[in-house]
Amino acid sequence: MPIEVRDLTHVYNKGSVSEAVALSHVSFRIEDGEFVGLIGPTGSGKSTLIQHLNGLLKPTQGRVLIDGRDIWEKGMSLREVRQKVGLVFQYAEQQVFEETVWDDIAFGPKNLGLSPSEVDARVKDAAAMVGLTPELLRRSPFELSGGQLRRVAIAGVVSMKPKVLVLDEPAAGLDPRGRDEVLTHVKRMHESGMTVILVSHNMEDVARLCQRLLVLHNGSLVADGTPREIFSKAEFISEVGLRAPDVVSLMEKLREKGWSVRTDVVNVEEAFEEIVRELKVSKGASAAR
Fold first, then answer.
1. Which value, in Å, is the radius of gyration of the alpha carbons in the chain?
2. Residues 149 and 110 reside in one and the same domain
């Protein structure tokens, strides 16, 4: 189920003294099964953009197409659009409100009018997908850790069986363990076939997880490419107010020290492999002497 954005412009308070252009002529297409990172400095338009993808905001100009159909055309159901494109807001625990974890995850499926057995199956499937054990389903969500609570919120969206999952800073504010837990399950959902769009300020996360990055700056789409393509442009990254992953700087410094390492690595795993390779080469050269 591809998503296509064509010439999207959004103006808040249009025609008033407080008019503000949040997005300007943004166009892109996301295919089935992609894992796309949406990055940009604060105020670049990321949150405004993702709210257009399931019809929470209506474009001032331009179109949003799901499966080739404009979501705002006559006859389209926004309710159906929101079942296909699930959106998890930043600090998603603010979306949690029921007395038990089971009830919270079941809220969406119940509103679809599904049978009790189907609701129960969806709750269990969604909980398993985000790593929530059956014992946790009986507890109050507000007794859980921050990482568990975030996963409850994600499960509530996943229980609607969306084709596309849009996450706005899903690991924001979590400790390292909670962050790893949430992002590990997001990765697994993508591996199961779900299209994922991840909004994040953490460049290490997007470099490690995403296949493709969309870069917003001042409401415009200024770059679209792989993490390696985007983060290799040091001057561009600085100009748009971002920073490359720390491993990029590390490899550049090692190169300056005389190490024959690649400088186009973008994540810790690649950096580790490159450093180990160089150490083996150096060890072999020393032994030969």
1. 21
2. yes
Residue 251 CB neighbour total at 10 angstroms: 22
Q: Specify whether the CB–CB gap between 216 and 40 falls below 8 A.
A: yes
- pTM comes to 0.90
Quote the pLDDT of residue 287: 61
Q: How many domains does the chain have?
A: 2
Q: What is the mean pLDDT of residues 146-163?
A: 90
CA 220 – CA 243 distance, rounded (Å): 18
CA distances from 31 to 5, 67, 70, 100, 217 (A): 12, 10, 16, 36, 23
| Domain final residue, candidates 176, 194, 227 | 227
In angstroms, the CA 245 to CA 226 distance is: 14
d(CA 277, CA 154): 39
Which pLDDT belongs to residue 138? 93
User: Could you read off the pLDDT of 21-64 as tens digits, one per residue?
Assistant: 999 999 999 999 999 999 999 999 999 999 999 999 999 999 99
Considering only CA atoms, which of 46, 85, 83 is closest in space to residue 65? 85
Give the span between the Cα atoms of 114 and 116, in whole angstroms: 7
Which residue in 176, 213, 216, 177 sits closest to 198, CA to CA?
Answer: 213
Cβ count within 10 A of residue 4: 17
Q: Write down the pLDDT at residue 158.
A: 92
pLDDT of residue 146: 84
